[in-house]
Amino acid sequence: MQKWIIMCLALFSATVIANEPNTLFTINWVELNKQNKPKTRTLSEKGGRFQIVNMADSSIRTIHMNKKIKLVYLKAGNYCYSSVFISQSQRAPIANPICFTISKEQINIIGTFVIGSRVTTKGAYALIVDIKQNYKEIAQAANQPNAKPVPLFKPEN
């Protein structure tokens, strides 16, 4: 019985250690006007949800931004921003997605993405309106001094 308990604890510990958070996200949200420019005074640094898709297996991950900087676990591989939530259940697809590569060798920093959304009579959409490369600032704020920036790229389709 004691051996079984020790084996279960060892397996649980190995699983927890293997999935330690390894990726830092920072997202700022804005509303877009008719010209797809950010409306003044609508910038928000916290709150909101967005989705990314794993390019290898097409699995979708929803990330809740309940603080300014979010540290999450992602498997090594390529991911793309796919959508943002504009209400509890309604998503707005990101019309100009950006992709990134996660390494298993380091803590990964995505940078600060500014994502704008707009609802029209034809539906909702979102755009990545800015990418701030403030990697050192994010690493310091998250107390992750050895974190490294990830490569960003546009999807092929």
Tell me the layout of helices and strands.
Blueprint (H helix, E strand, L loop, with lengths): L1 H17 L4 E9 L17 E6 L5 E5 L5 E3 L4 E9 L5 E3 L5 E4 L5 E13 L2 E10 L2 H7 L6 E2 L2 E2 L4
Parallel strand pairs: 1-8, 8-10
Antiparallel strand pairs: 1-4, 2-3, 2-5, 5-6, 5-7, 7-11, 8-9
Model description:
The chain is α+β, with helices and mostly antiparallel strands. It has helices at 2-18, 135-141; strands at 23-31, 49-54, 60-64, 70-72, 77-85, 91-93, 99-102, 108-120, 123-132, 148-149, 152-153. The longest helix is centred in the N-terminal third of the chain and has 17 residues, at 2-18. The chain is globular, with a radius of gyration of 18 Å. The protein starts with a helix and ends with a strand. Strands 2, 3, 5, 6, 7 and 11 form a six-stranded antiparallel beta sheet that branches. Strands 1, 4, 8, 9 and 10 form a five-stranded mixed beta sheet that branches. The mean pLDDT is 89.
